[in-house]
Amino acid sequence: MKLTLDPGAAALLDALHAAGYAAYAVGGCVRDSLLGRTAHDWDLCTSALPQQVMELFGTEQCIPTGLQHGTVTIKYGGQLYETTTFRTEGSYTDGRHPDEVQFVPDVREDLARRDFTINAMAYNAAEGLVDPFGGQADLQNGLLRAVGEPQQRFTEDALRILRLYRFAARFGFALDAATARAARQLAPHLDCISAERIQEELAKLLAAPQPGAYLEPAVLAVVLPELTPEKLTAAKPVVDVCPAGEENLPVRWAALLGALGETDTRRVLKRLRCSNACIEETAVLVRETAGEGVCGSFLLGHESGHSIARPTACGSRVPPQRTVLGETLAHAGEVAIRRLLGRYGLCTVERLCALCAALRPQAAPACALAAQRARQLEADGVCCRVSQLAVNGRDLMAAGIPAGPALRRVLEALLDGVIRAEYPNEKPALLAAAQKIIAS
């Protein structure tokens, strides 16, 4: 078994070997290399003690990131290489971190403390693959299995329960039966994990290609107690149809939590310490798709039997009671897409179309066309915002319209008229329309 090492990692391993120390690439970089994927982080492990590593490479090249746990980060070739001394770990009183570590001379002892077999492999060019727990076979068989006794691994660090489902979703692997059973049984221990770490793992899980099968009810009952089993079951297929990837997390969050409504969705994401940007974007998606029969009506021109007031511009925030998805004006599809572009921007409109397609599969073709139309409108610079009008506040004041709230209302009314094709986006026509609006 021969793997292609990152050049910097290879050079550091050669330097450690030349100084008489055992050293290996370890963990995720080995796993990803065996899978034929590009490894982005190359972690090293060595028999050298932290102080010996710093003496070998010099204080200018080393960052003492975790000396008490044996970790030194080496700067080399513009990259950072986390280098940790072989170690075993003591008890985990807090269910998250070892109370103490003991440095050991053998890499196999170090690998025995790791979470899953696919992460418990080491490699160097001289010895090849060191795989005492069958990680390579598990990779080939598409199986995620704990190292040693699963109960012990999850009791040591409850976060490994979420990591189990995150890794399985990322690679599309099956779960070893004993490992999955232990994860379900020990899921209540997740209550000792910080909200930030839970959010980080959930985000990585949701970003996976098809995470629905890995949203384990026993686990989500602890980390997302607001989501009932029934709502979770209904959300899973919707989540899977939404576009994957970290950039689409708001869509996936909205698909998962949308049944809770905007207020509770905000509350959940705030509790999980999500970024304000993620919370706001997810809230918009939930709000604009809330209510059975509403989602997608802006694409299909469905009438809801009532008229919704013209939207009032208010920056990036929109009053919760206002929505454009149920709009019943003529040419509702085109009008609503332009309203959405003006209110939220192209990225949000594309996400709305994706979420609507997932919620209403029969509308997927119309959603795709709406997203395409939104991109074309944006590319063509079609007027969707007050800033794109052929007149501005100074023009209106020069025409005798006083500054203040009235001026803003006129601009919004002009935008509404342009979007609904009542008059062209041309200065003379807009000034004439403004006089009629102010006189009415």
UniProtKB/TrEMBL annotation:
Q: Matching SUPFAM superfamilies, A to Z?
A: Nucleotidyltransferase, Poly A polymerase C-terminal region-like
According to the entry, every stretch annotated as the Poly A polymerase head domain falls at 23-145
Tell me the ranges covered by the tRNA nucleotidyltransferase/poly(A) polymerase RNA and SrmB- binding domain, including all copies: 172-217
Keyword Zinc-finger assigned: no
Q: Which residues form a coiled coil?
A: none
Q: Provide the alphabetized UniProt keywords.
A: Magnesium, Metal-binding, Nucleotide-binding, Nucleotidyltransferase, RNA-binding, Transferase, tRNA processing
**Record InterPro entries:** Bact_CCA-adding_enz_type3_sf (IPR050264), CCA-adding_enz_C (IPR032810), NT_sf (IPR043519), PolA_pol_head_dom (IPR002646), PolyA_RNA-bd (IPR032828)
- Pinpoint the CCA-adding enzyme C-terminal domain residues: 386-434
Cofactor dependency: Mg(2+)
Single Gene Ontology BP annotation: tRNA processing
Q: Name one GO molecular function term.
A: nucleotidyltransferase activity
The family annotation for this protein states: Belongs to the tRNA nucleotidyltransferase/poly(A) polymerase family.
Know the name of this protein?
tRNA nucleotidyltransferase
Source organism: Faecalibacterium prausnitzii
